[in-house]
Specification:
This protein is mostly helical. It folds into two domains: 1-91, no CATH class; 92-232, no CATH class. Helices cover 79% and strands 0% of the residues. It contains nine helices and no strands. α8 (188-201) runs antiparallel to α9 (209-226). The chain starts with 10 loop residues before the first helix and ends in a 6-residue tail after the last helix.
Length: 232
């Protein structure tokens, strides 16, 4: 595929194409997931994935990895390839100076008390019963994923729960969505704030919405001032 074939499209057109790519990719990877679950685990595997039951963790882990790849990573790379002749540069894969790395780490350390304070404030906001139920399910699933007697399985679980989603989310929200929103709104801060709100909201974990939103704004700003996705 030739890179940058949709580079001349309008901002609105690119945003619509970006959304269509996410929907199509997530559908394809979900379909692949259900087919694999049927082959590897039988009907029970598909039922587990659909009902989010914790009776077959391997089936849920496979679905988790496929969904993360299909919703975040593949759409980001495909969109960058369509919108730019230099897709990796478009996503922000640029070298970072050593002093920038140290400054970023310092910012993170200084920001931790403020993030914790925002988390405490968020806890004071009353939530609906369905929101609380979602929180409990997410917490139970994460704990189930991480508990294991094997160190190597634990590392794989950490990769699945933390590293893979973090990479995918940065690519899709900062690498593509924020760039599209900044171009569409013609405002750096408007693009950063909207992207951060979507980034926080899509997790469907409302007790951490405010601190996650603040992190999203910080990550977005760091990308804007450094031009490198490695920083956020």
């Amino acid at each position: 595929m030739e890179h940058g074939i949709l580079e001349s499209k309008s901002s609105v057109g690119k945003m619509l194409i970006f959304g269509a790519i996410i929907l199509f990719s997530s559908f394809i990877f979900s379909l692949i997931g259900f087919l694999l679950l049927g082959i590897l685990f039988g009907a029970s595997g598909v039922q587990v994935a659909l009902g989010e039951s914790l009776t077959n963790l391997n089936a849920l882990k496979l679905m988790q990895i496929l969904q993360t790849t299909g919703i975040f990573i593949v759409p980001a790379i495909l969109s960058a390839s369509l919108f730019s002749k230099k897709p990796w540069h478009y996503l922000g894969f640029q070298r970072v100076k050593t002093d920038t790395i140290f400054k970023t780490l310092l910012i993170v350390l200084i920001s931790l008390p403020a993030i914790n304070l925002l988390a405490s404030v968020n806890q004071l906001i009353p939530l609906s019963d369905w929101m609380i139920e979602l929180e409990k399910k997410a917490e139970a699933l994460t704990k189930a994923f991480l508990i294991t007697d094997s160190f190597w399985v634990f590392l794989v679980n950490i990769f699945m729960v933390a590293i893979l989603p973090a990479i995918g989310e940065e690519l899709i929200f900062r690498g593509i969505l924020q760039r599209r929103l900044v171009e569409l709104t013609r405002s750096r801060w408007t693009g950063i704030i909207i992207a951060a709100a979507v980034f926080s909201g899509i997790h469907m974990q409302f007790q951490g919405f405010i601190p996650r939103f603040a992190l999203g704004v910080a990550f977005g700003y760091l990308l804007e001032v450094t031009g490198s996705i490695w920083v956020p």
